[in-house]
Specification:
about 475 residues, alpha+beta, DNA Methylphosphotriester Repair Domain, Arc Repressor Mutant, subunit A, Endonuclease Iii, domain 2, five-stranded antiparallel sheet, 22 helices, 11 strands
């Protein structure tokens, strides 16, 4: 079945399948993306692979023309088990930088043998092969798209030493990294900041995503200006600035990082992909949600719907609490006041950004006087900050989500709406849905009064993409 679908996609060079499988060409010894512009090889000369790592393990080299490293990321939850999805997130966070598969399996609560079996079943390659290929592809993008020195690229990609970095490239490309950079038609220009091109799965409505963040941008911490998203982040104890904008060439966003050390680049790039939901399987989502008559109409106006993520789970939780029973704009104003009064000021403001959002430790004992908060809401924020600071509440996406909701809702002033909203955006659960949200209910049932129970029942047909259905409905609401 896979082969039939993949063969049709290959012949059509269907961009919807870019990154979802790779084509190994036996006669040339290379592997390509399904959109590769090269002459289409004969069917009897090719093999299909579920991941670039699987093609690499078969002894094939990446194509230098279509650049498999630039394909949109594999949608980790599409067609894979929950364990594999969680394993991929841990690998993106560096869990296999030292090659410890046993430790990764232990964190996932299974044996290493079972972990390897699941990865082979769903991705066609072992966890170590997946980690190696991701590091290699990330390094290749930095070589092609930046002027970063090779020793910095080796560090950024997690190789630990330039020797290992050079060996990996010679083994895979039959060339040294410097030779690959010399092949570029246009030389890169060194600068104080670093810009990385992030491919996304189309369609992607950047203005819609920017509009969502624009309504919620915390003054002093985040800003939207001239089509560019900016924000401050604390990375390993040091403030940093990131900027994201649409590339002039369609199909990608540009991420610019300032004051970010090389060893943190990979994690920040992966986090940015997650926050802007670049790898969402848009075709699968549209196919599932399009079966609902109401959502089918919304998909025509909002193709490629995304669920914006969160840079920091605690920050998002604070925003969710602030947003209870007031407008989005009012909550944004309160968040700005909190950041200005209790956050860490930057020594040198940049682009109007002046502060880092306060940490749980900074908020657990503050009084929140004279900023417009009622006492009960202020106490909820203190209790939330204390629970996070003490480690009783975490935003680890690997945790059991039902247990998270139960612990989260034990904090007075936090209910199911807030928990589901945090699941959607911070823990990136594609099936989370705040069924008690009045905006969702009104958008789905505009002509009559309905109940959360009706929304809950209706939403069963949207699984496992209910979070995307929520974004469609919110987008249809005035001011959504």
């Amino acid at each position: 079945m896979y082969n039939e679908v993949f063969e049709r996609a290959r012949k059509a060079r269907d961009p919807r399948f870019d990154g979802r499988f790779f084509i190994g060409v036996r006669t040339t010894g290379i592997y390509c993306r399904p959109i590769c512009p090269a002459t289409t090889p004969k069917r009897e000369n090719i093999d299909f692979f579920l991941s670039a790592a699987a093609a690499s393990e078969a002894g094939l080299r990446p194509c230098l023309r279509c650049r498999p490293e630039c394909a949109p990321g594999t949608p980790a939850w599409a067609g894979t088990s929950t364990t594999v999805r969680r394993g991929l997130r841990l690998i993106d966070g560096g869990a296999l930088d030292h090659g410890d598969v046993e430790a990764l399996a232990e964190r996932l609560g299974i044996t290493s043998r079972h972990l390897r079996r699941l990865f082979t079943m769903h991705l066609g390659a072992s966890p170590l092969a997946i980690a190696h290929t991701r590091r290699l592809h990330f390094a290749k993008r930095l070589i092609d798209d930046t002027a970063l020195p090779m020793n910095h690229i080796a560090i950024a990609a997690g190789y630990g030493s330039v020797r290992r970095f050079n060996d990996a490239f010679r083994k895979t490309y039959n060339r040294a990294p410097r030779d690959l950079r010399r092949m570029k038609l246009e030389p890169t220009v060194a600068s104080a900041s670093l810009t990385v091109r992030l491919q996304y799965r189309e369609p992607y409505r950047w203005n819609d995503v920017l509009g969502f963040y624009g309504l919620r941008a915390t003054p002093g911490v985040e800003s939207i200006e001239s089509g560019c998203y900016r924000r401050t982040l604390m990375i390993s104890g040091k403030p940093a600035l990131i900027e994201v904008r649409a590339d002039e060439k369609p199909g990608a966003l540009l991420l610019t990082l300032t004051d970010v050390a090389a060893e943190h680049l990979f994690k920040i790039v992966q986090k940015t992909r997650e926050v802007f939901d670049l790898d969402a399987p848009t075709h699968d989502i549209a196919e599932a949600l399009g079966k609902d008559q109401r959502l089918r109409g919304l998909l025509k106006h909002q193709p490629g719907v995304r669920v914006p993520g969160a840079w920091n789970g605690f920050e998002l939780a604070v925003r969710a609490v602030l947003g209870q029973q007031i407008s989005v704009r009012a909550a944004t104003t309160l968040a700005g006041r909190i950041a200005e009064r209790y956050g860490t000021p930057l020594k040198k403001p940049l682009h109007g950004l002046t502060h880092l959002f306060p940490t749980p430790a900074q908020l657990r004992r503050v009084r929140f006087n004279n900023i417009g908060l009622v006492k009960s809401r202020a106490q909820t924020l203190r209790d939330l900050a204390a629970a996070v600071d003490d480690g009783d509440i975490t935003f680890d996406p690997l945790q059991d989500e039902q247990s998270f909701c139960e612990r989260f809702c034990e904090i007075r002033g936090i209910g199911d709406w807030t928990a589901q909203y945090v699941l959607m955006r911070a823990l990136k659960n594609p099936d989370a849905l705040p069924t008690g949200d009045l905006g969702l209910i009104k958008a789905l049932y505009p002509d009559r009064r309905a109940t959360p129970a009706e929304l809950q029942s209706h939403s069963e047909d949207w699984r496992p993409w209910r979070a995307y259905a929520a974004m469609l409905l919110w987008g249809a609401a005035p001011g959504g």
